[in-house]
Design a protein that fits this description.
The chain is an alpha/beta fold. It has 2 domains: about 1-60, DNA polymerase, domain 1, CATH 1.10.150; about 65-325, Aldolase class I (TIM Barrel, Alpha-Beta Barrel). Helices cover about 35% and strands about 20% of the residues. The chain is built from 10 helices and 14 strands. It has helices spanning about 10-20, 25-35, 50-60, 130-145, 165-175, 195-200, 220-225, 235-245, 265-280, 300-310; strands spanning about 1-5, 60, 65-70, 75-80, 90-95, 100-105, 105-110, 125, 150-155, 185-190, 210, 250-255, 280-285, 315-320. The strands form 3 sheets. It has a 10-stranded mixed β-sheet, with helices on one face. A hairpin with a 5-residue loop joins strand 4 (about 75-80) and strand 5. Helix 1 crosses helix 2, helix 4 packs parallel to helix 5 and helix 6 (about 195-200) packs parallel to helix 8 (about 235-245). The radius of gyration is 21 Å and the shape is globular. The two termini are about 35 Å apart. The model has no long low-confidence stretch (mean pLDDT about 95).
C-alpha cells in the first residue's frame, strides 16, 4: 500500500479527482499530515467518513522508526532510522545559535565510492522514497519538537542519483500546506552528476546547489572520486555554468582537505580558478577520519596557508569546522551503522 506521504500536493490533488473529491481536500489532508501530525485517516475530522474510508483503502500513513540517537560533545546529534525493509539510514542535526540544520540522507549506501567517504564502503543498497527523505525532517518536528531552520541534502548517498524522489521530497517540505520550509534554506549537494544537474536547474525553486569538488585536476579527482571518470571536471563546470545562466542561485564548492593529497598551493590555486569561472564561494572542510581508511587531517598551518592562497585570488572561502566527529556524524562519516 502506497504511503500517502510519498505524494506531493499536486499529486494528491490528482488523487482526489480520481476519487471523485474536490481538489481542496488535498490541502486539508496535507494540513492534517504535516501541521497536526495525524497518523490515522479516521482522525481527519473535516474529511467525512466516506473519504476517510477511501483513503484507508488506498493509502497508508508512514513514519520512520528511530533506532538510535547519538550525541556529540559539540552538541551535534545523529539519528539512526531503521527502514521497513531492514536497512538503516542516518541524519544529523547541527545547532548553531538559533539555526538548526538537518543533514538529510537520500540513499542507503552510494554507487560512487569516493575514496575518503564511509557512505559508499558497502556499495549502493537502495533509494529512499520521498516520504523517507522528507520524513527525516518531519520526524524531528513531530516527535522531538525540533523546528528545522535549514536542510542540507548532504547525508548518505548522492541526491541527484535519486532525483525524482528528491524533487518530490523538496516539494513536500517547501509546501505552505506542509512543513513550509523556504527553498532558499535548502541545499542540495552533488558529486557532479551532470544529468542530475540538468534536471535540477528545472526544479523551479530557489534551492541552493553545492558541488563536492575535492580536487582541481582530473587526475587527482579520478583517484579520489571515480565518478569523475564519467563526468570529468570540464563537464561538471560547464553544467554549473549552464545552471547559473538558467537563473540558479550562487554555487558553493565543497572541498574536503586531506593531508598530502589535495592540500598543496597548486591545489588551492586550481580550486580558486574553478571558483572564479563559476562565481562560486568555497567551503573548505578538514577531512573527518573514517575507520579503515588511510587519510589524515592536514596541520593547522597547512589549512591556513591553503585558505590564504584562495583569499589572495579574491575568491570567497570559509573553513567549515567538522562537527560530530566523535559520533561518526561529520562529513563523509555517515554509513547507516547499527553497531557503534
Amino acid at each position: 500500500m502506497n504511503d500517502i506521504k510519498n505524494l506531493t500536493l499536486d499529486e494528491l490533488k490528482a488523487e482526489m479527482m480520481r476519487l471523485g473529491e474536490p481538489a481542496y481536500r488535498a490541502e486539508q489532508i496535507f494540513g492534517w499530515l504535516y501541521k497536526k501530525s495525524v497518523s490515522r485517516f479516521g482522525d481527519m475530522a473535516n474529511l467525512g467518513r466516506n473519504l476517510q474510508e477511501k483513503l484507508s483503502r488506498d493509502f497508508s500513513i508512514g513514519s520512520l522508526e528511530l533506532f538510535g540517537v547519538f550525541r556529540s560533545k559539540d552538541c551535534t546529534e545523529k539519528y539512526l532510522f531503521r527502514l521497513p525493509d531492514g536497512p538503516c539510514v542516518e541524519s544529523v542535526l547541527i545547532s548553531a545559535g538559533g539555526r538548526k540544520t538537518v543533514c538529510v540522507s537520500t540513499q542507503v549506501g552510494c554507487k560512487f565510492g569516493c575514496a575518503f567517504c564511509a557512505s559508499g564502503l558497502k556499495g549502493f543498497i537502495l533509494n529512499l522514497t520521498p516520504a523517507e527523505i522528507a520524513g527525516q525532517v518531519v520526524f524531528l518536528k513531530e516527535n522531538l519538537e525540533i523546528a528545522t531552520t535549514n536542510i542540507v541534502f548532504m547525508g548518505m548517498g548522492e541526491p541527484l542519483d535519486n532525483y525524482e524522489n528528491l524533487a518530490k521530497a523538496i516539494s513536500i517540505l517547501h509546501s505552505p500546506e506542509g512543513p513550509s520550509i523556504a527553498a532558499r534554506r535548502m541545499t542540495v549537494s552533488t558529486a557532479g552528476i551532470v544529468p542530475g544537474m540538468v534536471h535540477f536547474k528545472k526544479l523551479g525553486l530557489q534551492v541552493n546547489l553545492s558541488i563536492s569538488l575535492h580536487a582541481a585536476t582530473d587526475a587527482k579527482r579520478n583517484s579520489l572520486m571515480p565518478v569523475n571518470k564519467k563526468y570529468p571536471l570540464e563537464k561538471v563546470i560547464a553544467a554549473g555554468e549552464d545552471y547559473l545562466r538558467s537563473g540558479g542561485r550562487k554555487i558553493t564548492l565543497e572541498y574536503v582537505l586531506i593531508k598530502g593529497i589535495n592540500d598543496s598551493t597548486a591545489d588551492a590555486e586550481g580550486l580558486a580558478r574553478i571558483a572564479k569561472r563559476l562565481k562560486a564561494k568555497i567551503n573548505v572542510i578538514p577531512y573527518s577520519p573514517v575507520i579503515g581508511l588511510p587519510f589524515e587531517v592536514p596541520e593547522e598551518k597547512r589549512m591556513r596557508d591553503f585558505l590564504k592562497t584562495i583569499e589572495d585570488k579574491n575568491v570567497p572561502v570559509t573553513l567549515r569546522q567538522s562537527k560530530g566527529c566523535d559520533i561518526q556524524a561529520a562529513c563523509g562519516q555517515l554509513a547507516g551503522r547499527i553497531n557503534k
